[in-house]
Design goal:
It contains two helices and no strands. It has 89 residues and is mostly helical. Helix 1 runs antiparallel to helix 2.
Length: 89
Amino acid sequence: MKHIAALQTAVTDVASDGEPTDAELDAIENELPLILAEVDLLDAQIMTLDRPASELDERRLRRARRRVLAERLALTNRTADEILPGGAA
């Protein structure tokens, strides 16, 4: 019987305790408004799965889509400001 062994070093740190780093937590906090907007959009889409969309449902979907787009734009601008300070983006 042949034994198969890894020929490369591990990609992740084996000694890690499994907790996110401060940088990862900061990135999540930075993206949280977009995550929440996407959850709201998903909720609006789920509500229309088993029935025809009413006018109120259509408004809710449009509002959720607009919020996702606005949050994506805001995140992009925040990220660009961090990379290119001084409004060069």
